[in-house]
Amino acid sequence: MVRKVLLAAPRGYCAGVERAVETVEKALDLYGAPVYVRKQIVHNLHVVRDLEARGAIFVDEETEVPEGETVVFSAHGVAPSVRANAGARRLTTIDATCPLVTKVHVQARRYTASGYTVLLIGHAGHEEVVGTMGEAPGQIVLVESIDDAEELAFAPGTPLAYITQTTLSVDETAEIIAVLRRRFPDIHAPKREDICYATSNRQWAVKEMLPEIDLLLVIGSRNSSNSNRLVEVARAGGVESYLVDDDSEIDEAWFDTAQVVGVTSGASAPEKLVRGVCDWFRARGVAEIEPYRLVDEDVEFRLPVELRRELALAETQA
C-alpha cells in the first residue's frame, strides 16, 4: 500500500529540449502552419501531439518536405547530407540541434580532420548517433558495449579518439571508457565529457533517492534514451522501475508491496505529465507527495540564430 510519493529533483525538461520545443512554437507563430519538423523534435509522444495540434507536420526525412517550405531539425542533430538535401530543395531551415550535441559533432569533425579514427560510444540507430556518424562516414566506429570495446582491433600506431552520445548511462559509459583506455593508452579524450549535464543530473538524483524508495516510476516515451537510462539506473541499484508515457499506463499491481514510490521524468517529458501521475496517486488516497531534495538547474540556451534573426526582423516591421 503506497503511503508516500517522492519527486526527484532535477527531473523533466532540460535546456536543449526547452529550446527545441520553443523553436517550433515560435516558428509556428512567425510563419503560420504548417511548419515541418524532421523526426520527432524531442523524444516525447505528448510533446509531438501538442505541436501537431498547433500545425507542425513531422516527417521522417527532409526529402518529404515540399520545396521552399520551412523545416526544423530536431534536437538530436543531423548529418551534413541532410543539410545538403535541404539546400537542394530550397528549404528554409531552422536548426534546433541541442548545443551539447553540436559540440560532439564539432569534436568528430576535428578529430577526423586530424587523421584520427573516432570511436563513438552510443546506441545504434539513435538519431543523435546517426547524425554524428554522418559527419565522417567510414572514419567513425560505433562502440555500444564493453564487449565491443574488448573486440576492437586496429593496426599498431593508429591514432584513436573517442566521443560519446550525450544521453548515455554515466556508469556504463565510464566502464566502456576504462576498457578503451586500458587497451589503447594513447587514445584521445574530449576535454569535457560528452554526456550532458541534464542526463548526469537526472541519473544522480535517482541514485540519491534509491535508499528511500521501494519502486521508481520514470515518465518518458519508449524511444527516449535518457528516460530508459533512468530505469536502468534504478534497477542496477536494486529498485524495481517502470517507464510510463503518462498516468494511463500505470498498473496498480506494481505497488502491492511498495510503501514509498519515487517519481522522475526524462529530459523530454513536460512537467504536466508529472502532475498527472501525482493526481493518479492522490485519487487513490496518497496524501504525502513531496520533493526529495530541491535542486534547481539554471542552464539556458538561446534560440537558433536564424530564428532569432527572423523574430527581430518581424518586430521591427510590426
3D structure, described in words:
- The chain is an alpha/beta fold and 318 residues long.
- It folds into three domains: 4-13 and 197-292, Cobalt-precorrin-4 Transmethylase, domain 1 (3-Layer(aba) Sandwich); 15-97 and 301-317, Rossmann fold; 100-183, 4-hydroxy-3-methylbut-2-enyl diphosphate reductase, catalytic domain (Cobalt-precorrin-4 Transmethylase, domain 1, 3-Layer(aba) Sandwich).
- The protein is 40% helix and 18% strand.
- The protein has helices at 15-31, 45-54, 80-88, 99-113, 127-133, 146-151, 170-183, 197-209, 225-236, 271-282, 305-317, and strands spanning 4-8, 35-38, 56-59, 70-73, 92-95, 117-121, 140-143, 160-164, 215-219, 240-244, 260-265, 288-292.
- Strands 10-9-11-1-12 form a five-stranded parallel β-sheet, sandwiched between helices. The protein has a four-stranded parallel β-sheet with strand order 3-2-4-5, sandwiched between helices. It has a three-stranded parallel β-sheet with strand order 7-6-8, sandwiched between helices.
- The longest helix is centred in the N-terminal third of the chain and has 17 residues, at 15-31.
- The termini are far apart.
- The relative contact order is 0.18.
